[in-house]
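Quick one:
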Amino acid sequence: MDELPIACTLGAADMADRRDAWEALLRDAALGRERLPHGARVRLRDARGIAERARALIAAEGACCAFLAFDLGADDGALRLDVTGPDDARPIIDGLLAL
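Output:
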């Protein structure tokens, strides 16, 4: 992962829509956020449609920001979304998850 350039290939016109989609997911479902050694974790309500929305955003983000890694899982009755990347990507991860 450290060998991939920290660059987003998403067009400028689409960035606002993507940011809005992340903000809406977090507003609707975030239970808490925490920093990880190489990224961050957000816990999401395990409610109808939340996992599908998260998976769609993960797929879209993975297509334009290959330097990030996403892991969506479940534990303790909630969804867990880990976003990790190179140390230089920390500001991007923090911005994505509103840390």
